[in-house]
Amino acid sequence: MTATRKRAAISFTGGKDCTLAMAMTKKAHDVVLLVTFGPKNFKSFKAHSLEIIRLQAKAMGVEHILVEIGEEGKTHLQCYREAIAEIKEKYNLDLLVTGDILNVCDNFMTRATQDIIELSSPIWAIDRHKLLDTLFEHKFELLITCASIKKLGDDENLARKFVGSKLTPEFVEETLKPQEKTVDLGGELGEFHTMVLTVPELYNGQRIEYEGLQIVEGEFMFMEFSSVQLVPV
C-alpha cells in the first residue's frame, strides 16, 4: 500500500540543515512552501541573506514567504503559534519540517506546533560526521557566511578562515576537525552558519554566484554581499 504524500512546508533559512531536511522530505512528501520566520520590520539576517533565500526558492521552484513575528502584548510563542496556524490554513498544509538537530530554546518548535500541525525534524540528533558526509555525497555547495568569533575561542584570525570559505571535505580536514574538541562540526551551537549555493537534485541546473566582503560586528564576522545572482551550472 502506497503511503499518502503530505503537503509540507519547510522552516527555511537557506542553510545546510534545512535544505538537507527538504531534500529528505521531498522523497516522501510534496514540498509546497518555504517559510522564513523573522522579527518585525527586519531586512535580513547576518548569517542568512534574505536575497539569497529568495534566489534559492526560485531555483528550486517552490514558493517562499517571509513571516514577521512580533506583536505587542503577545509572547514570542503565541506569535509563532498564530502564524503557523494561519499558514497551515492558507496553504492546506499537513506537515511543517525543520532542520533542527539539537534541542534549542526548550523544544520551541515542538511547543509552537503542538495541536496545530505535525512537526517533522528528519535530521534530528544526526551524528555530525554523518551529516557532513551526507551533504558531500549529495554535492551540496556550501558557503560559510557567518561565524561567532567568541565561539571560535575569541580567535578573529580563525573566524577569517571560516567566513567566505566553502565548507568542503578539504576545509573540514584542514580547518574544522582540528577544532573538534571545542567546535561542533556542524556549527550547531552557533559557531558558524552556511548558505547553500547549489544542490544538483534541487536547484534545477542553477547555482548562486555572489560577491561580498568579510565584515566584523561585535562578536560576529559575516559576509556582506554586494551582488548575488542565479546562473546556469
From TrEMBL:
EC number: 6.3.1.14
Domain (Diphthamide synthase): residue spans on this chain: 7-219
InterPro entries listed in its UniProt record: Diphthami_syn_dom, Rossmann-like_a/b/a_fold
Protein keywords: Hydrolase
Gene Ontology terms, MF aspect: diphthine-ammonia ligase activity; hydrolase activity
The keyword Cell inner membrane is annotated on this UniProt entry: no
Pfam families in UniProt: Diphthami_syn_2
Organism of this sequence: Linnemannia elongata AG-77
UniProt feature coiled coil, ranges: none
Protein name as catalogued: Diphthine--ammonia ligase
